[in-house]
Structure formats: structure tokens, C-alpha cells
């Protein structure tokens, strides 16, 4: 009898708790989000806080030991040294170039998968587009290294036209990063085009608009937030990348390489350099906020 009474009391407690959570959706949502938000605050925001704080420390020039003394010397050197400015501008330029190329390539691909291909083939095409994301990052980058190497597939393909491949350098870095992050641009554009009402296109045609005018006045305004949403991924991932440029970039230096090279010798300077992509990405997010892209993520 004691065991049965204990079990009945336990079931009653569970029912009361379930009833309380059912009547209070905000409490249920709070309990559901507490653990992941706490994890985010401790690991992500906490690490960013440590990054920003350590950027104001200095390094002993003789022992290379970190001296926890508040100083703005790292940021002063970052702003006044021409090499650092050039690397930051080059990194931002590479990220923008990758984003533009991804948008130009992704739009016709997404238009075909969303509006032209037969409905039964569309899911398979989307899976085919996303399949490269399942492959190893390093495998894909080294594959492009083989393609772009001297006598590789790029040289072999362009040889009949009297041309050669770009080799290793800045163009190779942009090309490889474009391949790596292209699916992140195709998917949101595909979703936007798939949800585009067909009657809008028919109405534009009935009113006498040609294909170009329909694209500018109907399609582009509705798809632009999705393009901006995809650019958040392509821009941020390209801006912080440092492995690709090490493998196919030749002597090219991006901000990620400077951070990596300063970690052992000058950790505070590496932290100061690491704040630059964070600031640039925050400014980029603020710039595209008005497009509605943040609501598409």
C-alpha cells in the first residue's frame, strides 16, 4: 500500500506540474530556452568578452609573456600600421567579392530549381546543391588546390584557348571561397523564389512588362531580403577564413592569417586583430537590417 500511495502521489505531482506548464506558456518557453541561452552566454558571449578584454593587454617584448596591464597600444598599432590596414581592407574586399559572385551564380541556379525544374525533381536538386556541405572542408579546399595547381585541371581546360589557370593567389582564394559558401546563398534564394506567387508574374506579363522589367519590379524586390540573408553567411564566413588562403592563397595574407600567426608570439595583438571581423560583421548586419534580411534567417 505504501508503494502504491507513493506512486499515486508522484503521478499527481506530475499532473499538477504539467497543468501549470500548460496554463503558463511563458514559463514553459522560459524553461525550454534557459539551458541553451545559458550555454550561449557562457561559451559564446563569454569568449567574446575575454577576447575584447585581452585585446587591451600587452606583451613583454623579451619573454613574450602576456602582461595584464590596461593599454590601447594594440589598437593604436592596428590603426596606424599600413600593413594591418591593407590586410583588413583586402579581407573585406575578398568577403564582398565572394558575396557578389555567390549572388550572381546562385540566382540563376535557384531560379531553375524553384521555377523551371519539374516539381518532382526540385527536392533532388536541392539535395544535390547541399551535398557539398557534407564533405570535409579540407578535402574540398585541397581539391581546388589540385585543380588550380600548375598543370592541373584549370590549366588543362584553358590550354586550347591559349590561357592558363589563375594559379595560387588572391583570385584562387576568391574562387575557392565562392565554391565553399555558394550553397548558403542558393538555399535562401531558392526558398524565396519558390514562395513567389505565380499570379504576380502573370499579372506583370498581362500588363505588358517584359522579362527584364518583371525581374526588376516584381522578382528582385521580393527576393532581395533573401539575397541579403544569404550574404550574411557568405560575407562572415569569408571574412574570418584563414585556412583556404593558406592552402591556395600563395603569399596572400588575410586577417585570419595575421590572427593565427600572432597567437603564439603576441596574444593581445591577435585578440585586437580578432575584434576587427566582429566589428565589421556587426556593421554589416546593421547595414542590411533595413532590407528585412534578418527576419529571413
Automatic annotation (TrEMBL):
PROSITE patterns: ABC_TM1
Stretches assigned to the ABC transmembrane type-1 domain: 88-288
UniProt-listed GO biological process terms: transmembrane transport
Membrane-topology annotation of the record: Multi-pass membrane protein
Keyword list, A-Z: Cell membrane, Membrane, Transmembrane, Transmembrane helix, Transport
Pfam families, sorted: BPD_transp_1
A single Gene Ontology CC term: plasma membrane
Transmembrane spans: 31-57, 87-112, 124-148, 168-187, 218-239, 267-287
Localization terms from the record: Cell membrane
PANTHER family: INNER MEMBRANE ABC TRANSPORTER PERMEASE PROTEIN YDCU-RELATED, INNER MEMBRANE ABC TRANSPORTER PERMEASE PROTEIN YDCU-RELATED-RELATED
Family classification: Belongs to the binding-protein-dependent transport system permease family. CysTW subfamily.
Name the record gives this protein: Spermidine/putrescine ABC transporter permease
Species of origin: Streptomyces filipinensis
Amino acid at each position: 500500500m505504501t508503494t502504491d500511495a507513493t506512486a499515486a502521489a508522484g503521478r499527481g505531482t506530475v499532473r499538477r506540474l504539467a497543468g501549470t506548464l500548460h496554463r503558463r506558456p511563458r514559463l514553459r518557453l522560459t524553461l525550454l530556452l534557459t539551458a541553451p541561452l545559458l550555454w550561449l552566454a557562457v561559451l559564446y558571449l563569454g569568449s567574446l568578452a575575454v577576447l575584447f578584454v585581452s585585446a587591451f593587454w600587452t606583451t613583454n617584448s623579451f619573454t613574450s609573456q602576456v602582461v595584464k596591464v590596461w593599454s590601447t597600444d594594440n589598437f593604436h598599432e592596428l590603426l596606424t600600421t599600413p600593413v594591418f590596414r591593407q590586410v583588413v581592407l583586402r579581407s573585406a574586399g575578398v568577403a564582398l567579392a565572394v558575396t557578389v559572385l555567390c549572388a550572381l551564380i546562385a540566382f540563376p541556379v535557384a531560379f531553375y530549381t524553384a521555377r523551371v525544374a519539374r516539381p518532382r525533381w526540385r527536392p533532388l536538386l536541392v539535395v544535390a546543391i547541399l551535398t557539398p556541405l557534407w564533405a570535409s572542408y579540407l578535402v574540398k579546399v585541397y581539391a581546388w588546390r589540385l585543380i588550380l595547381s600548375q598543370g592541373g585541371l584549370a590549366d588543362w581546360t584553358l590550354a586550347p584557348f591559349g590561357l592558363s589557370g589563375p594559379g595560387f593567389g588572391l583570385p584562387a582564394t576568391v574562387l575557392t571561397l565562392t565554391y565553399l559558401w555558394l550553397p548558403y546563398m542558393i538555399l535562401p534564394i531558392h526558398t524565396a523564389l519558390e514562395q513567389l506567387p505565380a499570379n504576380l508574374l502573370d499579372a506583370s506579363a498581362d500588363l505588358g512588362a517584359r522579362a527584364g522589367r518583371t525581374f526588376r519590379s516584381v522578382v528582385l524586390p521580393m527576393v532581395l531580403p533573401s539575397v541579403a540573408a544569404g550574404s550574411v553567411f557568405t560575407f562572415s564566413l569569408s571574412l574570418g577564413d584563414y585556412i583556404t588562403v593558406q592552402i591556395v592563397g600563395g603569399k596572400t595574407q588575410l586577417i585570419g592569417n595575421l590572427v593565427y600567426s600572432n597567437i603564439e608570439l603576441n596574444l593581445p595583438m591577435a585578440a585586437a586583430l580578432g575584434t576587427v571581423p566582429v566589428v565589421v560583421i556587426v556593421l554589416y548586419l546593421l547595414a542590411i537590417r533595413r532590407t528585412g534580411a534578418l527576419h529571413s534567417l
